[in-house]
Amino acid sequence: MKRIVLLFGFILALALCASAQTYIDFHDMAFTKAPSPMPDAYPASFHLSWDNFYYVTPGLWKEAGPGFWVDPATYHNTVAFIGGKMCPFAVTCAGAIKIGPSIGMTPVAKDFTPVSMTLSAGWASNTVTVLGYNNGKFVGSLVWKLTTTPITKTFPNTWRVSELVFTPGVPATGPAVFPKSGSVVIYSFILVR
Hints:
The protein has one domain (about 20-190): Jelly Rolls. The strands form two sheets. Strands 1, 2, 4, 5, 7, 10 and 12 form a seven-stranded antiparallel beta sheet that branches. The two termini are about 35 Å apart. By secondary structure, it is mainly β. It is built from one helix and twelve strands; from the N terminus they run H-E-E-E-E-E-E-E-E-E-E-E-E. The protein is globular, with a radius of gyration of 18 Å. The chain has one helix at about 1-20; strands at about 20-25, 35, 50, 55, 80-85, 95-100, 115-120, 125-135, 135-145, 150-155, 165-170, 185-190.
């Protein structure tokens, strides 16, 4: 009986450790008055690449749209975003969050399970198409409707990916709205290694 209880406890401990979540909220990013490219390997403990993503402190950036929410308790909250003003000549643009291969390992990237993301549209309501890939193999796609009010969206629990591609659609009010490109503002991201 002791062996069964010990074995069950060991399996439970493994399951809890295997599902440790990583919470990313950009709180440790430097304050910035103008959009800056997301640094390579952010956060340092996870080494994600943020292709075509920028970060900014909305309370300091005069051109931030209504979707760059500023928490009254923390006026200088930093966010990551794609699209909008950073794609001035395109109606749409895309960004990717990915994890690359480990140094000294085979050229296969590590993967992760995206759990949820709190996000909004930066300037005007639009959609965002999210594509998931695991080492080049298509995993699935989602289309989310975004407004300028932050909302938490969840990913399918079956997704195990090495890359997420985000393509914001044209703003719902039409391309005459500044900026012409759709946008996605990310406040936080939860994932499991």
